[in-house]
Structure formats: structure tokens, C-alpha cells
Write a structure and sequence with these properties.
With about 600 residues, the chain is of the alpha+beta class. The protein has helices at about 1-15, 60-70, 85-90, 105-115, 120-135, 140-145, 175-180, 205-210, 215-220, 240-250, 260-270, 275-285, 290-300, 305-315, 320-325, 335-340, 350-365, 375-380, 395-400, 400-405, 410-420; strands at about 190-195, 200-205, 230-235, 440-445, 445-455, 460-465, 470-480, 485-495, 500-510, 520-530, 535-540, 545-550, 555-560, 565-570, 590-595. A 6-stranded antiparallel beta sheet has the order 9-8-11-6-14-13, with no helix packed on it. Strands 4-15-7-10 form a 4-stranded antiparallel beta sheet, with no helix packed on it. The radius of gyration is 39 Å and the shape is elongated.
Length: about 600
């Protein structure tokens, strides 16, 4: 009720012309005889006998009705003859509840003003009675709002200055079409966009839409073209539809973080690939680790393979941050599975399991299930088999998955056997290492000379190191036997110095040929090394005496040939039992890594 009053008052205040004779100090009800233009003005008449409202004087009100009733309005649609007929049709009815046109407050206020119009002359009385008859079925709240306004002794008519020759003020076709955007001028169709209380009535022009969209062309000009002047679009957001129209009318792109996804949906629905491309480009520029999963879900939903590929690459490079993001638990099962099956994720498997458990808890809640281990396993479905439990250390598995209740007893036992016995029994989970690495493999050597006879008695060779940039260590180069071809058993580890946490390890072996070369021993999966953090490289060998390195360097720099990027290693003595290995001499001569 209050809204109608405001609109009514606004229609009065926006009138650029004075009220006709009989103007009083108090605002009186008025009859708006024609649809409002974009600036709150009545559209121009084609009548050769019409005269501007400002020249009418005291008798203009009564005469204006007869003029309007007898002349057609070229901008009011095929059914609208202008004048009183227009006033009657603009009155909202019970079957046609009033809807506010976006950006057109004048059009909304016209309905209220038409409902209370009276006339002081005999000719205006007949027109006013027609309007009164149509308004009898109007919305009750609007009528009550208007009737509550104080009435004046003699009601008068308000005329608005017409906007003549607006085309002359626009020098280009683009400017003229941009002027028509969201404008009642020349509009021949209206869209009821949204649903519920959020519906907005948006004017448009069939020709402009058909020129920019094959879908609109078929809608208006195809074999099954619609003849309706009002089209409901309940599945489209008003802001997104306005962004689409803005682009079709003016080539201007109006998208933001809140509207880009709904605009992308609307552009695809109405086959406007140029706007689609703008939306995708916007998403690319704003792609980050904390929104990668959300955008990946939308890219898969809207069938945008290029955007989906970029999201997956971002997740590969920033897996830990992406998994920690708030939106991760909102993805669907298929998206979760698409990520877990990748071989290029840069995170330890135990962290993937923890993230999957968080997702399962959120999904159980969405399905209104209790977050029991059984329900978590149920909602994880095919995703559970994509977690590579054999890549965990036995400590990680024992502390997490083995106690979670998500795995069956049989699965837990088989995985423990896989960790502890040789030959390793078959397990139902993937044991293929993930490799999050791209580009060329790199390595550095910290010794400049090789000597003979380095013995082993079960003590680990250890050296502390740090780097200046993020890398992934995939293995070490180790010296082999001085007694000819020999096989060694070896356990390699990388330990976080401050927390004494084992970040990566592998129990394996290697064969040497008796030369002074180094022999590669690789981790099960890459170990992420962060800049300016201390780590310990550790190797425990079982076998005969080997070669060892001397004249070690404290700092070793690797420069990438293609890019010139420098990776600087700094080596330090590792306190404790280290089998004699130090910066100057010992084992672990080579570190193999990717950037």
C-alpha cells in the first residue's frame, strides 16, 4: 500500500509541466492518458492537430481527452489506440497483478494515477467513466492506497512534455539502440523475469533481440513463433537477463562476481557466444585456489571444457589450498571423483583422505543422514576407491584411515599387510604414484670429487637443506659399491626439521655397477619443499662399502635453461647420528626435483 502511494507521488513530482487550470496548493489526483516514456514523458502523437500541453491553458484538460482518444500512439503496441483506451488498459486488474518495469518508475505510477482520475468538464467525464469502469477490478491494496490521499475540490489533469525527435540526439546506430535498452519507447514485447516476489517486467524490442540471438529469432520469427506480448522466464535471474539485453543492445559487458555464473547460463540459454566468452574470460582472470572447486562445478554444469581444464590445473598446483577452501565441501560427487582420479595432484594422500571425509560429512548433512562411518562410506561411493591408501606411510594410515571406521576390517588388514610384508599382497586400491609435476626433471650435485670406502652399520646418512623457492623432490642420487655390481636395500626419507615429521619415504632397493656414478632412488610420490624451510634428507643403506663424495659445497644453484629461473639449495650439518655425512663429504650427493 505504501509502495503505491510513493509511486503515485513520484509520478506527480516527475511531471515537467505545470498542472492545468485549477491547480491548487494540495496535490490532486490525475489521469495519465498515455504510457510514460523513458524520461517520464508522454510519447509524441502522430496527430497533425495536436499541440504541446504547455500551450493549452485552462481549457486544455478537457480538450486533451478528446484529442488523445481519437489518435493512435505508435509506441504503445498494436492494440493501443492511445488516449482513454490506453488509460483503461494501463489499469492493473485482478487477473493481471501490477509489476514494476525495471528502470521505468513512470510506467508503474501511471496505473495508480489512472484509477482516481475525475474531470471538471463534460467531455472528460465520459473518458473518466471508462477508466473508472476498468479500475473497478484493480488490485485492492492499490485502490486503498490511492483513496487514502486527500482529494481536492476539483481534480485536474497533468500533461507531460513529450520527447520529440530523440533520434536526432543519437549520432550512431549504437547510441540509438543503447537508448532503447530497458526502455518502453517502441517496445513490442515484455519479459516477466524471475519467480515469486522477485519477478521483474522488462521491456524489449523483438527486432533487436532477433538480430543478436538465434533463439530469440526462432521465438519471434520461426515456424512456431509466439504472438504473446508478455513472455515469462522463471528460470532466469533478472540481473542476468538485463546483462544479456545490455550486451545485445550496446555490446557493453556488465558482469561481476555475483552475476557472472547466472549471466553465463543466460548467454548459453539464448545462444550468445560472444557474451559467453566474456563470462569465461572473467572467470579465468578471477580463478584462485579458494574458488577453483566452485568454478569447476559450474564449468562442468555449463559444459565449458576450457574453463574446467584451467580449474583442474589450478587445483593441481594448489591442491592443499583448494581442499581447504570453504567451497570444496559444496561440490557434487562427480566433481569430487574427477579430481581424486587425477595423477597430478600436489598433496599427500592422507590429506586427500581428510578432505574426502569433510566432504562426506557435508554431503550426509545435505542428504539428512547422520554422519556415521557407514553413511560417510555410502555418500563417498565411487570416490572412496580413488583415494590411494597404499601411497600413505604406515604411520599416516594407522593414525587416520585405519581408525576412521570408513574402511572395512578386511580392507584395513590388507593395507597393513601391504605396508609391512614383502612381496606385497594385492590391494583393492590404486597404488600408482601421483605426479603433480610438469616441465623437465632437474637435479643438483653437491660434491665436486668422489672417493672410495664409505661403510654402513645401520645408521642413516643425513644432511639438512633448504631452498629459495617451492619445488617437489622426487628422489635422491646415491653412490654404489666399490666392489663391482651389487644390490643395496635402502630406505629414503625427507623429514621436516622443526616438527620431525616424515613427509615422504620409500623402502626400496637399487642395483649398482661398481662405478663412481650415482644411482637413482625415487620416492613413491613427490615431496613438496617450501622456500626457507629446513628439511633433512635421509638415506639408510644395507650393503657393502661404497664410494662417497668430497669437497662439498654449502650452496648449489640450478638455473633452468629455458626460463633462467634459479633454484638455490643451502646445505647444513644435520645434528645427531648421521653416519658421518656432512656438508664437506659423505652420501646423498644428488637431489632430483621438479619446479
Amino acid at each position: 500500500m505504501r509502495c503505491c502511494v510513493c509511486l503515485f507521488q513520484q509520478s506527480l513530482q516527475c511531471s515537467p509541466s505545470k498542472m492545468a487550470a485549477g491547480e491548487s496548493n494540495s496535490r490532486s489526483s490525475c489521469l495519465n492518458l498515455s504510457n510514460s516514456g523513458p524520461l517520464g514523458n508522454a510519447p509524441p502523437s502522430n496527430s497533425a492537430h495536436s499541440s504541446p500541453a504547455s500551450n493549452r491553458g485552462a481549457g486544455g484538460a478537457a480538450g486533451g481527452i478528446n484529442r488523445s482518444a481519437g489518435n493512435s500512439n505508435p509506441q504503445s503496441g498494436p492494440e493501443n489506440g492511445g488516449g482513454t483506451e490506453s488509460a483503461v488498459r494501463s489499469t492493473p486488474s485482478a487477473h493481471n497483478p501490477p509489476r514494476q518495469t525495471v528502470g521505468q518508475s513512470g510506467a508503474s505510477s501511471g496505473a495508480a494515477s489512472n484509477m482516481t482520475a475525475t474531470s471538471s468538464s463534460s467531455s472528460s467525464s465520459s473518458s473518466s467513466s471508462s477508466a473508472s469502469t476498468a479500475s473497478s477490478s484493480a488490485d485492492a491494496s492499490a485502490a486503498a492506497a490511492v483513496s487514502s490521499l486527500p482529494s481536492s475540490p476539483a481534480s485536474v489533469l497533468v500533461y507531460r512534455e513529450p520527447v520529440y525527435n530523440w533520434q536526432a540526439t543519437k549520432s550512431t546506430v549504437k547510441e540509438r539502440f543503447a537508448f532503447l535498452f530497458n526502455n518502453e519507447v517502441l517496445s513490442d514485447v515484455h519479459f516477466l523475469v524471475g519467480k515469486g516476489m522477485g519477478v521483474q517486467r522488462i521491456p524489449a524490442h523483438r527486432f533487436a533481440l532477433a538480430v543478436g540471438s538465434a533463439v530469440f529469432d526462432a521465438m519471434f520469427n520461426g515456424g512456431m513463433a509466439t504472438t504473446s506480448t508478455e513472455i515469462e522466464l522463471p528460470d532466469v535471474e533478472p540481473a542476468a537477463f538485463l546483462a544479456l539485453l545490455k550486451f545485445l543492445y550496446s555490446d557493453e559487458v556488465q558482469i561481476g562476481p555475483e552475476t557472472v555464473m547466472t549471466t553465463l547460463y543466460t548467454a548459453k540459454k539464448y545462444a550468445v557466444p560472444a557474451l559467453e566468452a566474456h563470462c569465461v574470460e572473467f572467470l579465468k582472470k578471477n580463478l584462485r585456489a579458494d574458488n577453483a572447486f566452485m568454478l569447476l562445478t559450474q564449468a562442468r554444469l555449463f559444459d565449458e571444457p576450457q574453463l574446467a581444464s584451467l580449474c583442474l590445473e589450478n587445483i593441481d598446483k594448489n591442491t592443499a589450498d583448494a581442499l581447504a577452501a570453504e567451497g570444496f565441501t559444496d561440490v557434487d560427487l562427480d566433481t569430487l571423483a574427477a579430481v581424486l582420479e587425477r595423477d597430478t595432484l600436489g598433496v599427500r594422500e592422507v590429506r586427500l583422505f581428510g578432505a574426502a571425509v569433510r566432504w562426506a560429512e557435508a554431503e550426509a548433512q545435505r542428504q539428512q543422514l547422520q554422519p556415521t562411518p557407514e553413511n560417510k562410506r555410502r555418500v563417498l561411493g565411487k570416490a572412496l576407491a580413488l583415494i590411494r591408501f597404499p601411497l600413505m606411510t604406515i604411520e599416516e594410515f594407522a593414525a587416520g584411515p585405519a581408525q576412521s571406521g570408513i574402511l572395512t576390517d578386511r580392507e584395513v588388514v590388507s593395507l597393513f599387510l601391504h605396508f609391512t610384508v614383502n612381496p606385497k599382497p594385492h590391494v583393492e586400491f590404486i597404488d600408482r604414484p601421483r605426479c603433480c609435476l610438469r616441465g623437465k626433471e632437474c637435479s643438483i650435485t653437491r660434491f665436486s670429487q668422489v672417493e672410495s670406502r664409505w661403510g654402513y652399520s645401520g645408521t642413516s646418512d643425513r644432511i639438512r637443506f633448504s631452498v629459495n623457492r617451492r619445488i617437489f623432490v622426487v628422489g635422491f642420487g646415491l653412490y654404489g659399491s666399490i666392489h663391482g655390481p651389487t644390490d643395496y636395500q635402502v630406505n629414503i626419507q625427507i623429514i621436516h626439521t622443526d616438527s620431525n615429521t616424515v613427509l615422504g619415504q620409500n623402502d626400496t632397493g637399487f642395483s649398482c655397477d661398481g662405478t663412481a656414478s650415482t644411482f637413482r632412488v625415487m620416492f613413491k610420490e613427490p615431496v613438496e619443499i617450501l622456500p626457507s624451510v629446513n628439511y633433512i634428507a635421509c638415506a639408510t643403506l644395507k650393503g657393502p662399502d661404497s664410494h662417497y663424495g668430497t669437497k662439498g659445497m654449502r650452496k648449489v644453484t640450478h638455473e633452468a635453461p629455458a626460463t633462467g629461473t634459479k633454484t638455490c639449495f643451502t646445505f647444513c650439518y644435520a645434528a645427531g647420528n648421521n653416519n658421518g655425512t656432512s656438508v664437506e663429504d659423505g652420501q646423498i650427493p644428488e637431489v632430483i626435483f621438479y619446479t
